[in-house]
Write a structure and sequence with these properties.
- This is Haloacid dehalogenase.
- InterPro entries: HAD-like_sf, HAD-SF_hydro_IIA, HAD_sf.
- By secondary structure, the chain is α/β, with parallel strands linked by helices.
- It is built from 11 helices and 19 strands.
- It has 3 domains: about 120 residues, Rossmann fold (3-Layer(aba) Sandwich), CATH 3.40.50; about 110 residues, 3-Layer(aba) Sandwich (Rossmann fold); about 60 residues, no CATH class.
- Helix content is about 35%, strand content about 20%.
- The strands form 5 sheets. It has a 6-stranded parallel sheet, with helices on both faces. A 5-stranded parallel sheet has the order 7-6-8-9-12, sandwiched between helices. Strands 16-17-18-19 form a 4-stranded antiparallel sheet.
Length: about 350
């Protein structure tokens, strides 16, 4: 898979037969819809693209997620939802026999997934569980974290649904499962195994379930969604409606870089130009250009300030920065401005 941006001369909704779509920050934000999400996704279906919603959220059951999406104008069935709870249950199967006891710290989604995988769900370390499955739920508190720590200290295998430090809500960013896992890890000194993104496990499970030929990952976080795409060998589309920004794209580590960049889910219906190298170190993308000189990112003049030209500026800046860094240069992060801040 190419290390840089790949470009898409035709709309991704026509080039790929399946989209693996993140939820928070992509399809919705907390309980609020994200502008253009419903039209972008329903329009992709109309063009023949199938959808599977792949989320690190382990607290909710697929039926609940499907109902929320349907209520936001994105008709969805439970079979089109893949959660980190399901991935964690799959990971448990790699070491535990059916019928083993598992202490579940999390919400209904994780409890159901573990039970459906054939395990006995318990709530106390005194039940001598073989494993602790930990996922986020708003009701998780000190008592549950303490039971997890007691069980792990006694030898239980610690499996985390995901390690996201934060999660987006309608009011801002709140502590995610990774923050709660960190409390247990600090108490026990044991590093858990994780089933969620950036592991590509869920993506591969979703592709296998759908029988897809060519899947596209769509996400808002470089460290989970796009890192999972890179590690799994999938093309990743970063939409700028959630956690990671356009500036983050320019500064991204190789394993977290997107292949495509879009303002929102309308990007499924738009061609994506690929930046091209030019003279004097300039990289150009239609009317935008960028280069790195002595570690400093320079942006060329051009473009009309429209959302399209702002995205081209981001693409050119990514190409210039990534090329320089991959060649051994050090990029001065202070020279990278906030980019694409007005894409409405």
């Amino acid at each position: 898979m190419k290390a840089g941006l790949v470009g898409a001369p035709v709309a991704p909704a026509e080039a790929y037969d399946l989209a693996l779509v993140d939820l928070d920050g992509v399809a919705y934000r907390g309980h609020e819809p994200i502008e253009h999400a419903a039209d972008g996704l329903t329009g992709a279906r109309e063009r023949g693209m199938r959808l599977v919603f792949v989320t690190n959220n382990a607290s909710r059951e697929p039926e609940s997620v499907a109902d929320q999406l349907t209520g936001l104008g994105i008709p969805t069935t439970p079979a089109e939802v893949m959660t980190a709870a399901q991935a964690a249950a799959q990971l448990l199967r790699s070491r535990l026999e059916r019928g083993a006891r598992v202490l579940v710290v999390g919400g209904a989604g994780l409890r159901t997934a573990v039970r459906q995988a054939g395990y006995e769900v318990v709530d106390s370390a005194d039940d001598e569980p073989a494993a602790v499955a930990q996922g986020f739920a708003p009701e998780v508190g000190w008592a549950q974290l303490a039971e997890a720590a007691y069980a792990i200290e006694r030898g239980a295998w610690h499996v985390a649904s995901n390690l996201d430090l934060s999660l987006p809500t309608a009011r801002g960013f709140a502590p995610g499962n990774g923050s709660l896992v960190g409390a247990v890890r600090a108490a026990t000194g044991v590093t858990p195994d994780s089933a969620g993104k950036p592991s590509p496990t869920m993506y591969r499970m979703a592709v296998e379930r759908a029988g897809a030929r060519d899947a596209l990952v769509v996400g808002d976080r470089l460290d989970t969604d796009l890192a999972g795409a890179r590690s799994g060998g999938f093309v990743g589309l970063h939409v700028l409606t959630g956690v990671s920004s356009a500036r983050d794209d320019v500064l991204a580590h190789p394993g977290e870089r997107p292949h495509l960049i879009g303002a929102d889910l309308r990007a499924l219906h738009e061609p994506h130009p690929e930046p091209e190298p030019g003279p004097e170190g300039w990289w150009t993308c239609r009317g935008a250009s960028a280069r790195v000189v002595d570690g400093v990112l320079e942006l060329g003049r051009g473009g009309d300030g429209s959302p399209a030209s702002q995205l081209d500026e981001v693409r050119a800046a990514c190409a210039a920065a990534w090329s320089a860094v991959d060649a051994g240069a050090t990029l001065d992060e202070s020279s990278v401005p906030e980019l694409a801040t007005d894409l409405a």
